[in-house]
Specification:
The chain is mostly beta strands. 1% of the residues lie in helices and 44% in strands.
Amino acid sequence: MTEKETFYHLAWAHGEVTVRAVGGMIAPVEFDLGGGRRISPLHVAPWKPEGLSPLMAGLRGEWPCLPFGPARVPDNLPAGWQARTLENGWDHGYCSNHRWELVASSDSVLSLAIELPPGDLVERLERHIRAQADAPAIEVELVIHPRRDAVIPFALHPTFVVPKEGVEIVGGSYAAVHTYPMQAEPGVSRLRPGLVASTLKALPAEGGTTLDVTRLPLPFKTEELLQVADCKPPFVLRYAAQDAEVLLDWDATQLPDALLWISNGGRAHAPWAGTHYALGIEPDNSCFDLTSVATPPEIHPLAKRAGLQLRAGVPLSIAYRLSARAL
């Protein structure tokens, strides 16, 4: 029998936030755009929780991943990549699969925390979710309390709604786009692996074609992972049918890249069932989502993306902002 979920809530003049205790996952978030118009841009997975991991049972919205990546080495790791073991055991880390406790709340702030196991490199994580008093926006701060010196791959994991009427990536500059080193979903993914492009509008695809991934959903089923390098946020999503834009802003000096997860109905197995559509824009310091389980060749252009530099006893703060505006 599935344990009853716990959620925390925050409402203010310009919106409302719900936070899942497991993973500290933020979603849904509703922003009030004025004139009775609201937008809820963060994705909530549609499946039932039975038989799934804590992370997957209530997959939704945004949460911090420490370490970022799977708990196991992929079967199709390409030549030149070396498997490695980062003491973990949980997809996207212990913090993504366990309950965060509410430690303080007010009319404008929710503060959560989680204590990590004694052997973990990090002792404690805190999340402070602050509603902006005069705007449809939230500011989120993560505070990492390291036990020991370490370099750990890390990412935030904002996942956005992809409605049938579409969403478009209209803002957010970057230096290059790197395709995943292997097929993100074997036998399904359309992008050619291990290549570099200058724009999301023309990525190298099968058959010598190019693929524009700035307008979703795509007209065919696929799953794709890309690393957008040297970002200059904010990234802007346009929901034209709702006459709204959603902005994701973060400190690119800490998290220089963003992993794009394009889930476009390409996973046929449970619980995805070929019906899952979402867009992840995941600010990261990692080589894709693989640094926790594999080391790339030294010549790989993202080889130096090893993770956050943590110092024992020195808290590290990471912040981002999610907001909406009417067109």
